[in-house]
Specification:
By secondary structure, the chain is an alpha+beta fold. Helices cover 31% and strands 22% of the residues. The strands form five sheets. Strands 3, 4, 7, 8, 9, 10 and 18 form a seven-stranded mixed beta sheet that branches. Strands 13-12-14-11-15 form a five-stranded mixed beta sheet, sandwiched between helices. It is globular, with a radius of gyration of 19 Å. The termini are close together.
């Protein structure tokens, strides 16, 4: 991890280096492809020059987006349409790059990086957190958001859970999603590994809380708040910045590209920074629950640094 991270207000905060990370890159399941998705051979000479995917995408006028079903980041709505924070950003940026058609490829979160590198799609558009482990497998755009954490708890929050330390102190039964880094935050606060379950997504976790199988389900605040909104019998806790060994843990996410495609990533970054500088980025993502507090000037280079 980078030694320091920048929050949207310019304050510098230190991130912890030694926090163990759950392996999220292993395993790969067949994705559900919503639209045509052919595979192209990699031109070795083109790769050495930063890749030619941008030119090929412009020529065909379409891009395949790898997504995972996680509200509000990327998902297929009840009408079968691609939506979410990341696809909304992708539509604007790729449109400005001359690409105006989108083919979503829906797969499990843990299969996004393997699927990208296996040419099953062209870019990961799923709000993926940027960290050194993932940076060894893919290259990232600069992040388009930072996120705090939150819990889904029973209505009234009977155990008073507001932090991972509270979970450890109360011995609460908890769970998170597969490969989500929040498990490490809980472990770093002394929650026994045996007390942390896994559910496939936030809706399964919400139902587990509702039916009393667990006391809390935790994840990034945008995911948790969206899931709990208008859900009977549960509520979302106030978003908070996780702390491990006295150090704040700042998470930020962006778009992932194959390591050979630096030209596409760099062109994407140019347009992303234009959106940030103009304030348009906030306008694009605010319908999905993101606020000015979630905007960031962090860079992928900072987040990828050990």
């Amino acid at each position: 991890m980078a030694n320091h991270k920048t929050e949207s207000n310019g304050q510098r905060v230190r991130r912890r280096h030694g926090l163990s990370r759950r392996a999220v890159l292993a395993g790969m399941s067949a994705p559900l492809v919503l639209g045509a998705a052919g595979c192209a051979r990699i031109d070795t000479r083109a790769a050495e020059d930063g890749g030619d995917l941008l030119e090929r995408l412009r020529a065909q006028g379409s891009v395949r987006l790898g997504i995972a079903s996680e509200i509000p980041y990327s998902y297929i709505d009840t009408d079968g349409n691609l939506t979410g924070q990341a696809p909304a950003i992708a539509r604007v940026i790729f449109g400005r790059l001359g690409i105006d058609r989108f083919q979503p490829v829906l797969t499990e979160f843990g299969s996004l990086i393997p699927g990208l590198n296996a040419l099953q799609f062209d870019v990961v558009a799923a709000g993926m957190w940027i960290n050194p482990e993932r940076c060894q497998k893919v290259i990232f755009s600069d992040p388009d958001y930072v996120a705090k954490d939150a819990f889904i708890v029973a209505e009234g929050n009977p155990l008073g859970l507001e932090s991972y330390a509270d979970i450890a102190e109360t011995g609460a039964r908890v769970a998170t999603g597969p490969g989500w880094f929040q498990r490490d935050y809980a472990l770093g606060n002394g929650v026994p590994e045996g007390n942390i379950g896994t559910y496939p997504d936030q809706l399964a976790g919400l139902n587990a809380v509702r039916h009393g199988r667990i006391d809390a389900f935790f994840g990034t605040a945008p995911t948790i708040v969206a899931a709990a909104r208008n859900a009977a019998g549960v509520e979302a806790t106030t978003p908070f910045t996780p702390v491990v060994d006295g150090e704040e843990q700042i998470g930020a996410g962006g778009f992932a590209f194959r390591p050979t495609e630096t030209n596409l990533r760099d062109a994407f970054n140019v347009e992303l920074h234009k959106l940030k500088d103009s304030g348009e980025l906030l306008d694009i993502v605010s319908p999905f629950g993101f606020t000015e507090e979630d905007m960031t000037d962090l860079t992928a280079e900072e987040l990828c640094a050990e």
